[in-house]
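Recall the central idea of this unit: under ordinary conditions, the amino acid sequence of a chain determines the structure it adopts. In this exercise we apply that idea directly, starting from the sequence alone.
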Amino acid sequence: MPENLTPQPWWAAVIGGLLFTIPWLIGFGASSSKATIASQQEEIDRLNARVDNLEAREKVNLELIEELRAQNVLLREALGKGTPETTS
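Accordingly, the structure predicted from this sequence is:
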């Protein structure tokens, strides 16, 4: 075997370092990804709760608008003015 291809101690260190470093980097990336996914899931849950709250408020507001419109019609009739469509 030529002398330049003879295994050297530093080769073993480099190969061992690579064999250790690559799985460690993969594991680090996986744990980081899991943490990111968990935080994004929490953010999604928070936003979903906020959307549900806004939808509930929208429903209440629409009911109030309908009630105010009905009262408005009654007040116009009571004042004798009729609805805007009949006075124009």
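The longest helix spans residues 9-79.
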